[in-house]
Input
Amino acid sequence: MIVVSVHTIEKTLYEGMADAIQLPGIDGELGILSLHIPLLSLLKSGIIHIYHRGAQNTEIRILGGFVEIQPESRVVVLADTSL
Output
């Protein structure tokens, strides 16, 4: 499982667990699974897909930002803004 946090300057958009995440990276889509290597990347405008096994998946539309993938399967997204 991955611990996911998605924030803008105004509010927290999502905090919870996920089985996988797909992010709109500046150089292409980033697919994140548990135990991914640490990474810091720019994000472009697009949709963050948060996948949950056996439950409804979550989609968050953002207008750019950053993602930090930390050790211990933690993903933090700092989005410029969301729609």
